Amino acid sequence: MRVSIGFAAALLLWASATALAQNAPTVRVTGTCWIGSTKVPLGGVTVQLLQTPYATVSDHDGHFFLGPVPAGQYVLEAREIGYLPYRQTVQVGATGTLNVALELIAQRTDTLTRTPVELEAITITAAPAAHENAATTITIPPLVITQTPSLNTSDLLRQTAGIEVHQQGQGPGFASDASMRGFSSDHSTDMALWVDGVPINEPVNGHAEGYNDWTLVFPQAIEAVDVIKGPTSPVYGNFAMAGAINMRTLDHVHGLELWGSGGAYDRFEGGALTGWQNLHNHGVLGIRGESQNGWRPNSDYKIGQFHGRFVQDFSSSASLDAGVEFYGTDWHSPGFLSDSQFQARDYDVVANPTDGGFKRRAQERVSLRVVGGQSFLWRTTAYATQGRWQLCLTTPPEGGVSEGTGSQTE
Fold this sequence. Notes:
Elements: H1 2-23, E1 27-32, E2 34-35, E3 40-41, E4 46-49, E5 55-57, E6 63-69, E7 72-79, E8 86-92, E9 100-102, E10 137-140, H2 142-146, H3 153-160, E11 164-166, E12 177-179, E13 191-195, E14 198-199, E15 222-228, E16 243-249, E17 256-263, E18 267-277, E19 281-292, E20 301-313, E21 318-332, H4 339-343, E22 356-372, E23 376-394, E24 408-409
Parallel strand pairs: 1-9, 13-16
Antiparallel strand pairs: 1-6, 2-3, 4-5, 4-7, 7-8, 10-15, 11-12, 13-14, 15-16, 17-18, 18-19, 19-20, 20-21, 21-22, 22-23, 23-24
């Protein structure tokens, strides 16, 4: 029984294969592509039997080969860029392995005629960027700034621009560090900080060259911020290894704005912002103060800040823009804790009650701007900066193991 079933299955497979072989396409379609009546062969022509997957490209002599294809009636199309397409109805037979040769010389006379081809228009739209690649520039609009609750300028950048900012040093805001593009620079010395087109990095400071003094920026006067994440740029000069931050301040304010807030450890912050605007000039004035005692003894902190900006319009194309930033701060420091004091949670220890410091800094600028049409902008800026600081800090006595014997540095 198993032999009979096997023989029948083999017979059935042989019969099916014979039927498939008889119905398999065996006819090839061949031909030549000519340029009009010149009898010059044309290579690279796409030849296809429409509504089928059969297609090929003519060789350098104009010859093409299709198939084998099943018997039937087809529409043969020849197409090449720069020429009018040509179509011809062909009948493919089913006689054995007969090859059907299509002589396209007569039929193609004056058909592949050279003609211009109009391609579909491509529109490219890009946002204008004066100096930087738009893909690496983040602009924080005024609405986001006004709706973001922040304690200071560095905290505002941390929340809105996604920049890592952490407190460092003996006074709040005194040495806030910001990291951009993986640069964990000391006191942001690798990041250029600009206000209204003027750099405010300090060339020389006790915290190294290029120290970023965030406290000089009046937080409530910031209108918009441009964050440029990129390598050193000739536009932003020194200290822009990781990128640059350009803060734009308000050029006018309507009425008077007052604010105040308080918190733990006797913290209080308040200020006022006012301004004016008329036909030929406008400006902004601001004053701010903050005081707190800190969570450890002898850790009080005070700051007073002033901001001013004045814009005089000489004409519709020329204006004078002037500004001033100033702050003064004083603080005391409880000093560092030794490892043994920290482990014993003895946080009320004051290393030296004279530890602390102060800083005073001011910066003035004036710019003359001339605008011509939509493509011309000429600007000349002069600025000056003044500053004085003093820091007294006692390091913990560790017997020469870590910080050395206790001493006071200035």
